[in-house]
Amino acid sequence: MINKIVSTSSEAIREVRDGASVMIGGFGEAGSPIELIHALIDHGAKDLTVISNNAGSGHVGLAALIENLQVRKIICSFPRTANSKVFPELFHSNRIELELVPQGTLAERIRAGGAGIPAFYTPASVHTPLAEGKESRIFEDKEYVLEHGLKADFALVKAQTADRYGNLLYHATARNFGPIMCTASNVAIAQVNEVVEPGMIDPETVITPGIFVQKVLEVKEPLFESQLVEDNLQYPW
Description:
The protein is α/β, with parallel strands linked by helices. The chain has a domain at 18-100 and 152-221: Glutaconate Coenzyme A-transferase. The protein is built from seven helices and twelve strands. Strands 1, 2, 3, 4, 5, 9, 10, 11 and 12 form a nine-stranded mixed β-sheet that branches. A three-stranded antiparallel β-sheet has the order 6-8-7. Helix 3 links the parallel strand 3 and strand 4. 45% of the residues are buried.
């Protein structure tokens, strides 16, 4: 019987090893799997390469993972946001590496990785520092830059609903990166608000099919990053 449900967050991330590449969902707290990220901090894996939309906020979630010096490199679009305190300090002291990628390009690189597409051309970043050292070509009198698909060892994503087969439904902007990260990773781990019985999810509404998901953790009352930041909390507590 197929059953991808795990009972604890530590069980969900126990295979993450030192030096692993990890995609982390986001695009706002709708897609940020806080409990899985905190479990990864407790797990202690280090020298990680993290692929995410941003570098976290305050001292919780992804920002806390970075602050705990477990991330060697981050590939993201928005390394500094209104509540970003950790990343700028570490970056300017050369304690973390940054690969800056335009947001649309980041999404397409992940999608391409999951679709088995090794590289593609895009007009984004042409004639900017982000294009330096990259191959470019002219198509129909317009210049394009070559970008490579992204894959990862693991993906940590947040979804709304799952069944034991791993079929996922998302809420709002969690859908922006979660589905493509599942396809582009070797092991996709989904934190969900609710696990339902097989057959209760209409197949026509499934966003991420279970074939792309290896583990599911139910968190009925997840933490919200914005509230933790507002309360000035820091993880580990």
